Amino acid sequence: MCPTPRSSNIHGVKRFLLAALATSASALLWHLGTGLRPLPGLAILAPLPVLLLVPRVSAAAAFLAGALSWLGVVAQLWPYFLDTLEQPAPVTALLLGGTTVLFGGVVVLTRALLLRGRAGFAVLALPAGWAAVEFLLAVAGPFGAWWSIAYSQADLLPLIQTASLTGVWGITFLMLLPAAALAVLCAPEITRAQRLRTTAAVSAGVVALFAFGCWRLAATPGTDTVAVGLVAVTQPPEYVPVDSAEGRAMVSRAVREIEQLADRGAEVVVLPEKSWRADDATLALLAEPLTEVSRRRDIHVIAGLILTTGGTSYNAAIDFPSGVRYAKHFLIPGLEDEHRPGTQWQQVPGRPWALAICYDLDHPDLVRANQRRGARLLLVPALDFTDDYWLHSRMAVLRGVEAGLGVARAPQLGELVASDSRGRVRAAARTDVGVTRTVFARIPLAEGSTMYARFGNWFGWVCVAMCAGTLAAAAGGRKAGASRTDLRS
Predict the structure, then answer these.
(1) Which residues 6+ apart lie within 8 Å of 79 measured at CB?
(2) Which of 167, 403, 430, 473 is most buried, judged by most C-beta within 10 A?
(3) Verdict on whether the full-model pTM lies above 0.85
């Protein structure tokens, strides 16, 4: 019996409403579960509504559902890139629009594998494909490892321990794996035997990594600790010349806070990035009082400043009393074109404490290089953009988990955060130019190295290889024995 035009129209409307509901649900979960201040756990559920839909609709509809759902991520990052970070509109459109298209493409790839009955490849398509996209953007793009959904789970401590093995790419893979596995279990083309094998394999992997995360959290990071103070003093919105009245007043305020933190037992105090402007003629106005207090109180002080020397401007950090200087390696495109990037690695003399500055920590290879040079703690002056106080600080926390390092990060217009090698936030406080904030914490120093610190981006390349394998499988024929029922009609 042939369906009537009326019943076909009703069926079409139902399919459209189902697709719209699934896409909207995924977009909402992506919106709430990622971005500048995400709700942990929601991003793990975000792909599921669309993945349950795609075996039952056309390839074009599957692509559209995937791409539109990803707009839940893009909608909140567009103004951040364009207005806050002041990135050019073409660059912003290429990054956000390009990832939207790529996400839709990975969803279509998953659909093709589900319809061919290739359960194993279908489970891997989204986790491996998207981790590969993030990894290749980090390798080839200008923003380092900034672009990853992994940071949204920074508060889920057992999950983020995976970064010590794989980098953030492993967290992304684990986030997307459960939804992909559930989609396989519910797909009409998948046999009962395939469902059993998929459940067993995915469950074993997730349980093993969760157990590893719990074990790593329970293990003692190290017996040595460093007492750290982080300070952001009140200041004007502009970068302050150290030889101005306000510049001298800022130095006096910083010295008072250093004294109080020294009374609490601080061994090192970190001040924000670009707190002052100085040159060869005026640097002594900062160096002399900070050297005096650091020697008298037997404490190290890390000050961030714009330093012009020999006619060249650097975004610098200086350790007092040693006078060791570090110049920021990675400068934000567009915003820091006036400065020259640094090339030297610096540690506080006699201590396993490395210097870095803000955006440097968006680049995992720089952190790994410091760890290989003997660093066990990163001292990081920083300057954020208020809106990204949570996200950017947690990127630094994840860098510490990856390499097995403690992180003491002191931003203005952000959040002071002291964290250990397991990603535990030991102390934190919001900062703003209109108020002075300090935190004090004892950060344990981990012994030894992590797998990621030793072997680097091995898992990123594995994901690229797995993605290539899923593409080859999708291009092949239907798996022998798979059902041929077509539920899209």
Answers:
(1) none
(2) 167
(3) yes
pLDDT digits (tens, 9 = 90+) for 230-269: 999 999 988 999 999 999 999 999 999 999 999 999 999 9
Predicted pLDDT at 2 = 55
What six digits make up the tokens of 23?
């896409």
Phi, psi of 319 (to 5 degrees): -90, 130
The rounded distance, in Å, linking the Cα atoms of 417 and 138 is 24
* Rounded (5°) CA angle 341-394-253: 70
The position carrying tokens 């929601």 is 42
Structure tokens at 85: 């970070």
* Backbone torsions φ then ψ of 307, nearest 5 degrees: -115, 120
Looking from the CA of 304 toward its CB, the CA atoms found within 13 Å total 27
Q: CA 314 to CA 339: how far, in whole Å? A: 5
Amino acid present at 107: V
Q: Which two tokens stand for residue 262?
A: 């020294």
Q: Where are the beta strands (DSSP E) in 197-331?
A: 225-232, 240-241, 268-270, 276-279, 300-309, 312-320, 325-327
More confident residue, 195 or 255: 255
Taking the C-alpha atoms of residue 54 and residue 482, their distance in angstroms, rounded to an integer, is: 18
Place of tokens 């103004």: 79
Amino acid occupying residue 199 = T
> What CA–CA distances, in Å, run from 382 to 115, 216, 356?
49, 29, 9
Look at residue 438 and give its three-state secondary structure. strand
